[in-house]
Amino acid sequence: MSQDVQSQELRGDPDGGDGTPEILTLPLDAWHRARGGRMVPFAGYEMPVQYEGIMAEHLWTREHAGLFDVSHMGQLLFSGENVDAGLETLLPGDIKGLGEGRMRYSLLLADNGGIHDDLMVSRLPADNAFEIEAGALYMVVNGATKWDDLGVLREGLADEVVINHLDEQALLALQGPEAVTALERVVPGVSKLVFMTCAAFEWQGNPLWISRSGYTGEDGFEISLPGDVAEAFADALCAEPEVKPIGLGARDSLRLEAGLPLYGHDLDLETTPVAADLGFALSKRRREEGGFPGYERIMMERGQGAILKRVGLIVEGRQPVREGAMVVDADGNEVGKVTSGGFAPSVQKPIAMAYVPVASAAPGTKITLAQRGKIHSAEVVAMPFVPHNYVRKGA
């Protein structure tokens, strides 16, 4: 656990001394290679893009359980005086009202109402895996933005708020309808969790922090554990017949089918929560009280509407459109842009997310796309493209 938050971590991506970013390795790097993972650079790390094929891995996760290594993501602990109030000056979520063992999706906002990052925040009980006091907050941020996030957080929070970067922790995601069956055998008791709750567990004497959450639209879990335990734990999970290792390629197609935005593609510093259709992340109390970056612009857009809105598209034919394709009007003028796109294995059609003029954002609206000199027809549809299968309280 690194507590030196003024170190190189806050000044940007680590480098090898010549100014070029250093490509880092995950705790499971050798494990991925031994299992046939094809490694590619992503978010500053060597990561597995696939093992046996993106479509096969995608469908396995939808039907069984897929194990994803997401250790590149940033895991942060916040403690100290006024930590709740401090984070509420940067996030639009109700942090003060977050109960122990509960988690919330939120946004790290810029002064213009744009988005530095989207993230998850959890409240830790006294019994937690990090040997820290009850009431502390655990946050998971995106891997590609974690260094910048740390800088924004340190600059925006008072000195009495302590940030610990858990750089020695691994993070694994087990996703799919059979995830709970497999994980319950390895870690008894996890089935008591429901969507967006979290708790401490043990495996062979090692502390685990487990949440029932994920980014595929399926039921599943995210497991934070010491990096030196990750390989043995991954072996234990993959020994279960329901579980196979899954790469980045299928993670992307799964989250796209689930209608979940990816930072740096569907979200960025020029995109507001209203335009991104993430109004649910603006808690009621915070909307009434304000006090977060971009408040006036965001509330104006809530009342009057943003110029553009993120929507889902079904593309006609079999040819997928990719990020960067233009949304064009009847005269061929660019009026929006595709931010994510691909062929959806579960839907068996090309799908996309795009920003379109609000007047064209209603489901059923016909949209014209231009990509590499070719014109494609699409229709706005409600997201998610595939129903979410979260296990909620009372289900």
Description:
The chain is α+β, with helices and mostly antiparallel strands. It has two domains: 8-257, Gyrase A, domain 2, CATH 3.30.1360; 307-381, Aminomethyltransferase beta-barrel domains (Elongation Factor Tu (Ef-tu), domain 3, Beta Barrel). The protein contains nine helices and 20 strands. The strands form four sheets. Strands 11-12-13-10-4-14 form a six-stranded mixed β-sheet. A hairpin with an 8-residue loop joins strand 12 (206-211) and strand 13. The longest helix is centred in the middle third of the chain and has 11 residues, at 146-156. The relative contact order is 0.15.
Portion in helices: 10-25%
C-alpha Rg (nearest Å)? 21 Å
Secondary structure tally, helices: 9
Overall mean confidence score, pLDDT: 94
Q: Give the termini distance in whole angstroms.
A: 37 Å
> Which residues sit in consecutive blocks of at least 5 with pLDDT less than 50?
1-14
Largest sheet: spatial strand order? 11-12-13-10-4-14
Strand element count:
20
CATH topology type of the largest domain: Gyrase A, domain 2
Secondary-structure arrangement, i.e. CATH architecture of the largest domain: 2-Layer Sandwich
User: In percent, how much strand structure appears in the residues?
Assistant: 25-35%
Based on Cα principal axes, name the global outline.
Answer: globular
The CATH superfamily title of the largest domain: Probable tRNA modification gtpase trme, domain 1
Task: Identify the CATH class of the largest domain.
Answer: Alpha Beta
Q: What class would the helix/strand composition place it in?
A: alpha+beta
